[in-house]
Each structure stands twice: as structure tokens, then as C-alpha cells.
Amino acid sequence: MSGNFVKLVEVGPRDGLQNEPYTVPTSLKLDLIDRLGRTGLKVIESTSFVSDRAIPQMADAEDVIAGLKRRAGIRYPALVPNERGYDRARSVGVDEVALFTAASEAFNQHNINCTIEESLRRFAPVVHRARNDGVRVRGYVSTVLGCPYQGQVPIADVVRVAEALFEAGCEEISLGDTIGVGTPRKAAEMVRAVGASIPIAQLAVHFHDTYGQALANIMTCLDLGVRVVDSSVAGLGGCPYARGATGNVATEDVIYMLEGVGMETGIDLLEMARTGDWIAGELGRPRSRAGQAVLKRH
Ligand SMILES: CC(C)(COP(=O)([O-])OP(=O)([O-])OC[C@H]1O[C@@H](n2cnc3c(N)ncnc32)[C@H](O)[C@@H]1OP(=O)([O-])[O-])[C@@H](O)C(=O)NCCC(=O)NCCSC(=O)C[C@@](C)(O)CC(=O)[O-]
């Protein structure tokens, strides 16, 4: 990966939609993924194979994957919490999965109903099978800068969980500020600590923008060498197990900032702004700041 190229992982169709209060039609999800695929994105996290009782919005995961109009050069990963999710994902041809756990026990219990250790035990056979199947595996660590139930999360806990996922075989570790409470110095301290044992090229950052800190946090992490950033078109999202947390940082805002500091994403900002404007309209959601400004100029 070149020094000034930043890979954006678009999480809008999954993280962005999972908390929508009404059922988003599968056709709308597919339309969103297709439009995102025209912007230059190379990774679009498309759905999750979780319990439909836990997350009703993702109940159509098989239909979403089966209905994708796959474009060459784009990867369409999906979240799986356990082997059952892996089986479901594989049954429709998913070739990249993301496992997810947290640095906070309390959050993990609410989110996936088990301890951190149990989650890691559940992941072991998934990673083993994925390796045999040639399936790429990403690992998420949630609550890296704070937890809605426990409050402060010690950095040592983040490091321990990130290392466990990495050693288990996850090729990329995404560090999630699930409730968007982080600020730049804390984010830097956390990334430095994780980066001491995991190559920085294999770390991604995943900021929610609850307190408007996401861009500042991302910039700080870029200065430390991070080159993979998760974001969500129009800033869609919010975690069902983190009340009050708003969406991910908006993809349009991230692209605008990166272009401004001379970094490349390979993504067409105007096309992304149009996509953000369209989906925000469909869902009755606010637009991203940069997206709106770009559209006004054109
Ligand atoms: C993990 C479980 C399944 C445990 O849920 P559980 O109730 O502890 O599991 P269980 O094994 O006892 O199974 C209970 C029922 O769920 C079914 N089940 C079991 N597994 C599956 C599956 N894969 N797909 C479909 N169904 C499944 C299973 O078959 C059974 O059905 P029943 O027999 O009662 O009818 C549940 O808690 C769950 O699905 N949680 C998902 C939570 C979630 O998706 N959260 C949002 C994603 S994480 C996130 O957003 C953060 C992130 C990644 O973006 C980063 C950040 O911002 O920090």
C-alpha cells in the first residue's frame, strides 16, 4: 500500500442500516450497494449473518448477497458472529467475513451474549474453516475508547483483544470507537499501543461521530501510519447496543479531508456525495456536511 493511499471500507449497508427503525427493503439495500460500487470503493461491507431476533434489519442477509451485482475488483464482506453465521454466509458465496467482539465485557454481553473469551472460542473454528476455504477474515474490536455500560476501557484490554484476534488469524483488525467518545490524543495512545504488537498496515480505524471528533481522530491515526479507514455514506448508522451513539463518520467527509491533505482514495467524491444525498433522502436522514457542500458547487 503506497504511503499516501488510504483504503476506505464502506460500512453503510451494514453498520449504517442495521439500526434503522423500519425495515429497509432488500431492493433498496441492493441499490445502495450498487451505487456505492460506482464510486470507486473497493470494499463494501454488505450485511451481517446474525440472529434476526437480535438485528431484524439484517434478516435478509442471504437475499442481499445473492442479489449483489458484483463488480470486478470490489470485495463485499459480511459480518458473522459464529459458525452458524459462517455457514449461512458461505451458502450464498460470501468470500470475506468479519468477526466481532469487544474490549469491554459488558458491551460484549449485550451485543453477542457472551464473554470476550467465549467469543474468541467461537471464532476459532470459523477462522480455521475460513483458512481452508480461502476466505479472508477481518476482526473488529468494539468499545476501544469507551463503553456505554462500563465507561472507561483500559487500553491494555484493547491490546489484549486485538492481539488475540490477530493471532487467531484475522488479517485486518478494525478498532471501533463504537459510541464515538474518543478524542485525538486518546485515539493516538490506543493506536500506538495496539501498533506495538500488530503491524500498522493491518490496522483499521472505525470511528462513530457522536461528539464530532471522528475526523480529528482519523487524522491523528493517519499521522501514526494507519491507512485503512471505515466510514459510512451520509454518516448512516448507530449501534443497536449503544444508545445515543450516532452513525459512523460520513464517507463524503473523510474523502474531502483526505483529498485536502493530499492523500488518495481512488473514490469520486461527487459520485459519493450524490449517493449520500440519495440514500439520506430515501431514509429521511440528514446529509453529510461535505456531501452537501460538494453538491451545491455542482
Ligand atoms: C451472536 C448471537 C447469535 C448470540 O445469540 P444467543 O442468543 O446467545 O445465541 P444462541 O447460540 O443461544 O442462539 C439463539 C438463537 O439464535 C440463533 N442463531 C445463532 N446464531 C445465529 C446466526 N448467526 N444467524 C441466525 N440465527 C442465529 C440460534 O439458532 C437460536 O435460534 P432459536 O433456536 O432460538 O430459534 C446474537 O447475540 C447476535 O446475533 N448478535 C448480533 C449482534 C449484532 O449484530 N450487533 C451489531 C454488529 S456489531 C457492531 O455494530 C460494532 C461494529 C462491528 O460496527 C464496530 C463498532 O462500531 O464498534
Automatic annotation (TrEMBL):
Its EC number is 4.1.3.4. Residues 6-273 form the Pyruvate carboxyltransferase domain. GO terms for biological process: ketone body biosynthetic process; L-leucine catabolic process. This is hydroxymethylglutaryl-CoA lyase. Belongs to the HMG-CoA lyase family. CDD domains: DRE_TIM_HMGL. NCBIfam families: PRK05692.1. It is an enzyme of class 4 (lyase). It catalyses: (3S)-3-hydroxy-3-methylglutaryl-CoA = acetoacetate + acetyl-CoA. GO terms for molecular function: hydroxymethylglutaryl-CoA lyase activity; metal ion binding. SUPFAM superfamilies: Aldolase. Pfam families: HMGL-like. InterPro entries: Aldolase_TIM, HMG_CoA_lyase_AS, HMGL, PYR_CT. Keywords: Lyase, Metal-binding. Pathway: Metabolic intermediate metabolism; (S)-3-hydroxy-3-methylglutaryl-CoA degradation; acetoacetate from (S)-3-hydroxy-3-methylglutaryl-CoA: step 1/1. The keyword 4Fe-4S does not apply.
